Amino acid sequence: MADFAQVGQLLDDAIDYRVAQAVQQHVQPAVQQAVTAQLGTIVQAALQPIHRTLTQLQHDVAGLQQNMAGLQQSLSGLRQDVQTLGARQRNGVCCSSVLLGAVPIQWPHHGGGAMPAHIAGQPLPATGDEVQEATAPVVDGMLSLYGLPAGSSAGGLPQRRTALLAHAGIYV
Q: How many helices (DSSP H) and strands (DSSP E) are in the chain?
């Protein structure tokens, strides 16, 4: 009887094995597809907020870069303004009418304007006396460099020289 019991057990095991193989061959792919599809849906749902956040961060970074460029431009303008005010203040103190010809003028920043061709390469008047002796083309060229009225429509040459000195902070 023990032999029949063993044979029965072997048959049960073989049947279980065949059933397990059949289940694995037919049911497992369907379950895998369902699980894969469900996992894909879950992963996509989890990634959507992350994607939105990353997109928003990219927009924020671009906005910050634009703001930084604007701030740098503003700071550059402020530096030029400070340099101009410093030059005018220095000139006003150092180049008073008593010392007009003795102390070199520190010309204010001209905002990146192009030097007029007729005075480009020539030395600019270095002292108040040199401005007082400068020719009309030099005075008008410097006035136009600073965006100030130039030429005979801006007054006589002495007036234009005075305007150029005043722009540098020197009042005579």
A: 4, 0
**What is 9-21 written as a DSSP string?**
HHHHHHHHHHHHH
pTM of the model: 0.48
Model confidence pLDDT, tens digit, residues 53-100? 888 988 888 888 898 888 888 887 777 777 777 766 766 666 665 555
CA dihedral for 49, 51, 54, 55, sign (positive or negative): negative
All structural domains of the chain with their residue ranges: 1-172
Q: Angle between the 157-167 and 136-145 helix axes, to the nearest 10 degrees? A: 40
Q: 117-149 pLDDT, tens per residue?
A: 667 677 778 888 888 888 888 888 888 888 888
CA distance linking residue 31 with residue 138, whole number of Å: 91
d(CA 155, CA 171): 17
Q: How far apart are CA 155 and CA 148, in angstroms?
A: 12
